[in-house]
Amino acid sequence: MAPVNVMMAQGRPLLSLLAFNAFASVAWSSPSSLRGAPAVGSTDSATATLPGPNGTNVSAIPMDGMDGMASDMPPFSPLRAIAYGALPCVSPSAEQWAQDLQSCSYYGLPSEDMLQEGYAMQWGAKGRNDLGRMKGLGANAVRLYHSLGLESKGSHKGFLDRAHELKLNVMPGFHSSEPSLCDDFDCFEFWKDATLKGFEQGFAANGKWHPAVSALILMNEPDFFEHDPLCKGRGAVCRVKAVVSALDGLLAAEELAGVEPGRVHLTVTWSFAMRTSIDDVVQGPGTFGFQDMVAVMKDPSLVDYTPRTPLPRLQSAFEKRWVHGLNTQSPWSFVSEFVSQHYQKYDNFGNLPWFIGEYGANGQTEDTIISDLTSLEKHAEDDALFLGAAVFQFQTAYSKGGTELNFGLYSLGTRKLGMTGEVCDSKSPCMEWPVFCLSADLPWFQSKPQLGKRATAVATAWNGEAVADSPEFCS
């Protein structure tokens, strides 16, 4: 059988895996906490019981303590999200495509926390209206990075309010790219403090999470921690200890602040690199992390960690709120087949659903992207253990350049719309940045035009529109 190339995290080498035999997926009824529909089975039960294969029953995410959804927000699934990290600067390798952008090298990287109010000129209704453009594409959610933990300037309430107005679920991510912020990969204190600071900046009010928040991404690809010098060759222990302690810290912050969990799910997005789970049970891209969480929640001593939260409460939060996640550039057909087989083989990874945190579609044509996203949504509608995907990403990553140019839906033109407010955080100095108009044209694909219609492909799959007669678009 021919090998299938599996992309790892963006810009990293390819791994080769053998393709699996065709797999017929099983249709499941959908848990109400994720889909906004009544659960199958007794409404008095703390756990929704779903019909499984061969007449058996399977328990899905427990329902008690979780709202089905905010009264006026869409359900979590089917997830049609867009990843958002639209930094307004350019790296030297991308300057030929954005000569009017200010240099990341000369001025330093802008703050990566896109929720701060200084970026309203990009995402706000009175600015470029990026959130409105996502809604126009047909998205129902936005996935973010570095939203908590960077100590950025100002409130996050404006972003959350705008998303709420548009009925876009928000999936904020914690700043998780620096293991040195943790104490030997014990991230309890940092995540607790970051969450409490987030509450002060608009993530919570009146004892609840902001109604736009649907999920919190505790870490993005923490499996790469094992390559950090601080890990000292301990491998999987570093990534798993970091995640379980971060979860512990978040729960402690909620308790300290008196913030109810509501409908807010918790997750980590693992890379699609080939790894082995902490308990040596699962080997494979992405799913190693699913098993990591199942194993460590049963026995935190696997990573020599003693939770500050009572273990039964930690386990209960995991059972009720956790969803598995992975990032991938690989074809949807392979990812679906591979993960589905692992779900069957490994007891549905705690009967918890999964989603794709970054659907990269690197080097894919318009037709392939349309087909993938259409199939993704159908699978999410039919299978309660799959939730959907976040398309990677809204704006071309001029700040990274190189192969990162492959992933944006929109490029930037030369017409200046205005300036951001001051944006800054603990890593980036305060500065204002010019904001330029959007274009669905991706000029670096000029020699391969079939690859350059990414926004059009997404809009077609989601019954939206890629461009509009509005000021945010270049003429």
Task: Compose a concise summary of this entry.
This protein has 475 residues and is α/β, with parallel strands linked by helices. It has helices spanning 32-35, 104-107, 120-123, 130-137, 157-166, 188-203, 236-257, 287-298, 311-321, 332-345, 348-351, 366-382, 454-461, and strands spanning 3-7, 14-18, 47-51, 57-62, 79-84, 89-90, 102-103, 141-144, 169-171, 204-205, 208-209, 215-220, 265-270, 274-276, 283-285, 324-328, 354-359, 386-391, 411-419, 434-439.
Written overview of the protein:
By secondary structure, this protein is of the alpha/beta class. It has a single domain (75-461), classed as TIM Barrel, CATH 3.20.20. Helix content is 28%, strand content 19%. It has 13 helices and 20 strands. The protein has helices spanning 32-35, 104-107, 120-123, 130-137, 157-166, 188-203, 236-257, 287-298, 311-321, 332-345, 348-351, 366-382, 454-461; strands at 3-7, 14-18, 47-51, 57-62, 79-84, 89-90, 102-103, 141-144, 169-171, 204-205, 208-209, 215-220, 265-270, 274-276, 283-285, 324-328, 354-359, 386-391, 411-419, 434-439. The strands form seven sheets. An eight-stranded parallel sheet has the order 9-8-5-18-17-16-13-12, covered by helices on one side. A hairpin with a 6-residue loop joins β14 and β15. The longest helix has 22 residues, at 236-257. Residues 1-29 form the signal peptide. It comes from Symbiodinium natans.
